[in-house]
Specification:
The chain is of the alpha/beta class and 359 residues long. The strands form three sheets. It has a six-stranded parallel β-sheet, sandwiched between helices. The chain has a four-stranded antiparallel β-sheet with strand order 1-2-4-3, with helices on one face. The protein has a two-stranded antiparallel sheet with strand order 5-6. The radius of gyration is 26 Å and the shape is flat. The termini are far apart. The relative contact order is 0.10.
Length: 359
């Protein structure tokens, strides 16, 4: 049912839209202390109230329809067995503003696998969906984006799924062993103990998706290998699912070495964040060079994830956006300084040539 009236302040048509939401779903959609509904109200400039089991959305016609569409998609998500979290609501609102909220159903329908505790692993944004599709279709996929966009986790889920389906014989996980901006000195223990701290994020994902017992068993058989990038030299990797993590910390030579290890029947995913390099100052990143050199080769995909694809705490998304904005301003400032220097030097050279002619 739709009730219509007119806003006396600006003559804009105001409407009230009703929708029925079962009580068990309403709690999840509204959120604790109605925090999810308050987000919808603030973003679409509407009021949303529960009237005896019926939800009424009131506001300007266009805004009310968008808010109702987002509520409907969140209800459908619950019906498909999903829990509603703040990130889901924020992303649904973003898509709702662009009238793309129907994409949520397509994204949610792409089940990769389940964790050992039974939690489904799916892409949560359009960027993640495109990334997962590229991994399925291409032999080599680069996933480039900021922290929290699920680059490594989704790649691990795809690798474990392929391994369980016997599409590959083993999984190889690697990353360059570089400290994150600080010197750790000499680490105690044997070689494995020394490199384990650098590979811990990969272990964490494996435990969560595969389970510690299954991981240990396959590791013992050599079917899962977690090793620093330096160990890849001189090998040919056939029938394997290979993931190179933290690729922004590779040099161009290391990246070339890694890519030329790939054998028949293998699939490769390379992940990295170009804004978080730990290389020595002045050293080019192998990830940046690979994007420039390999961008036009068939069967290689480059997927760019952004702050919109961050699926960690909403605060992480705000932090990533803030740094992106800061870096854009700094780059623009550096460009202006270089341009001024170029013009200044050009003027000096011109004056020098004039003096030479006079002499």
């Amino acid at each position: 049912m739709t009730e219509r009236s007119e806003d006396l302040n600006n003559g804009e048509e105001m409407i009230s839209l009703q929708m029925e939401i079962p009580s068990e779903q309403m709690q999840m959609v509204f959120g604790a202390s109605d925090k999810y509904v308050k987000k919808l109200e603030q973003n679409f400039d509407v009021t949303i109230v529960d009237r005896n089991g019926k939800v009424v959305v009131r506001g300007a016609a266009d805004n009310a329809k968008k808010a109702k569409a987002v509520l409907g998609q969140l209800c459908h998500s619950i019906q498909r067995g999903n829990e509603i979290e703040e990130q889901n609501v924020d992303y649904a609102i973003e898509l709702g503003k662009e009238e793309k909220e129907d994409a949520l159903e397509e994204i949610d329908g792409d089940l990769i696998c389940h964790t050992v505790s039974g939690k489904p692993i799916k892409p949560k944004t359009m960027g993640q969906k495109a990334y997962v599709d590229a991994i399925r279709q291409k032999m080599i996929t680069f996933g480039i984006g900021p922290a929290g966009t699920g680059k490594t986790y989704l790649a691990m889920a795809m690798a474990i799924t392929a391994f369980k389906k016997e599409e590959v014989n083993r999984i190889i996980l690697t990353r360059p062993a570089i400290e994150a901006g600080e010197k750790l000195g000499f680490l105690p223990g044997d070689m494995q103990s020394k490199v384990d701290p650098y590979l811990r994020p990969l272990y964490d994902a494996l435990y969560q998706i595969m389970g510690a017992e299954s991981f240990a068993k396959n590791m013992e058989k050599g079917l899962i290998e977690v090793a620093p990038l330096a160990y890849m030299r001189g090998r040919t990797l056939d029938n394997a699912y290979i993931i190179l993590d933290e690729a922004q910390n590779t040099t161009p030579a290391q990246m070339k070495m890694f890519l030329t290890r790939i054998g028949f029947g293998s699939k490769v995913v390379i992940t990295g964040d170009s804004s978080q390099k730990d290389l020595a100052q002045g050293t080019k990143s192998g990830l940046d060079v690979a994007e420039h050199v390999l961008g036009k080769i068939d069967d290689i995909a480059f997927c760019k994830l952004t702050s919109r694809d961050v699926v960690r705490h909403p605060l992480v998304q705000k932090i990533v956006k803030a740094y992106e904005s800061y870096e854009e301003k700094e780059n623009a400032r550096a460009l202006r300084i270089r341009e001024r220097e170029r013009l200044k030097n050009g003027g000096r050279r011109g004056e020098g040539r004039l003096r030479e002619r006079k002499q």
